[in-house]
Amino acid sequence: MTVTIVGSQLGDEGKGALVDRWGGDADVVVRYQGGDNAGHTVVEGGEEYKLSLVPSGAVRGKVGVLGNGCVVNPRTLFDEIDGLREKGLDPDVRVARRAHVIMPYHRVLDGIEEEVKAEDESGTEVGTTGRGIGPTYEDKVGRRGVRIGDLADRETLRERLEYVVPQKRALVEDVHGLEIDGTDREDAFDVDALLEEFAEFGERLADGGMTVNCSDFLHHRMQAGDRIMFEGAQGTSIDIDHGNYPFVTSSNPTAGGAAVGSGVGPTVVGQGEVVGIVKAYLSRVGSGPMPTELDGDEQEEALADFIREKGGEFGTVTGRPRRIGWLDLPMLRHASRVSGFTGVAVNHVDVLAGLDELKVAHAYELDGEVIETVPATAEEWARCEPIYREFDTWDEVDWTAVAEAGYDALPEATQTYLAYIAEEVDADVYAVGVGPDREDTVEVVNPYKKQ
Ligand code: IMP
What we know:
Layout: E1 2-7, H1 15-23, E2 28-31, E3 40-44, E4 47-51, E5 63-66, E6 71-72, H2 74-86, E7 92-96, E8 100-101, H3 104-119, H4 133-141, H5 154-175, H6 191-207, E9 211-212, H7 214-223, E10 228-231, H8 256-260, H9 266-271, E11 273-279, E12 282-284, H10 298-311, E13 323-325, E14 327-328, H11 329-339, E15 343-347, E16 359-366, E17 369-371, H12 378-383, E18 385-390, H13 399-405, H14 412-425, E19 428-433, E20 441-443
Helix pairs in contact: 3-4, 5-6
The chain binds inosinic acid.
């Protein structure tokens, strides 16, 4: 039995709270895409852990797997593992041998490419997290990447680096016209230094028995009766295929990615539950269109500031303030279709309490036509005018008491809002987030106990 958790919007929907809650009923928690561009905070036994790569389940004694679809920065991985060990934990983390390695030159290139785009008039700066995600996936697809399995074999690693590093050097020096030698970029392009550092990571991974043939590993765990959770990072609208390209990340956060990025068949993922995580409004870190953004006038900006502060809408990885907007149904319908949601969890409904008005984009008007799902290009998306529906607002209540009492204790207006979302995305509400803590969740269905 598998449960796949998918971001329905632009990332930061509060997936961690549900991964945390339902992950307790799983034996193995698998990340299937992305890398240390994700960020989640896990609170366990009064301690707070900020993680970007280690699956949160590993903090709770589950097996945490980084699947073949991930890009792994071993520096971040071991920093996080060491940090957890210092706090007395012994996380069991396995890394797919087929996963690609984020090398220091990928991070340097991520920064340079963003700077170049920022200076260009085309306005295509993505606002990446700067973690080297895009350049690493580029090398994977270009068949010049370094994989986790390569770190175990010094000769192979040397061959890979000797092939690729001169190309990266030429890119920086000849294409971008920037210096490497004598600058702080130097070490990232030094084959010998990279070989020493990354072969050592390879030894550490091997000594700890941390690398796995992911498909095989998960197959055997499932045969033994283990329950799997697939933990999606980022969100549907920044999916490389289904998001608003080019303002996207370079992987597939949507549910199909769970199969491809782990080696578990799509029929197995599809027999399980696929839960879309929805934030009750929209937030976005990074650039790109956002038709419902609250930035039209001073009043809207004040409302965005209020929601941003109340909802703590600042990037976990970068600390950047997030852009804020009303809930966008065309985006959610698209997300539900692409991933085949069996249920949704709607978070942050407490943040919307006490507002004077509450709107939702039910559809868009695009060049005189009404459309109910998102268009395929960012340019069209930028031209979309939201067609709003207004909803009754709800007051501030004792949310902790509501979480304890259950769904019927939610304010009536909140229930109307939730029922509307469920109907439009054709999936039941499994949970409602009413506060930042794990306990502040109204659970309607636990997907592991449904079947
Ligand atoms: P990258 O994944 O660092 O290449 O960034 C590409 C785009 O995805 C940028 O707009 C980032 O802000 C966004 N992004 C990447 N990871 C996350 C995330 O975990 N939450 C929200 N946005 C993200």
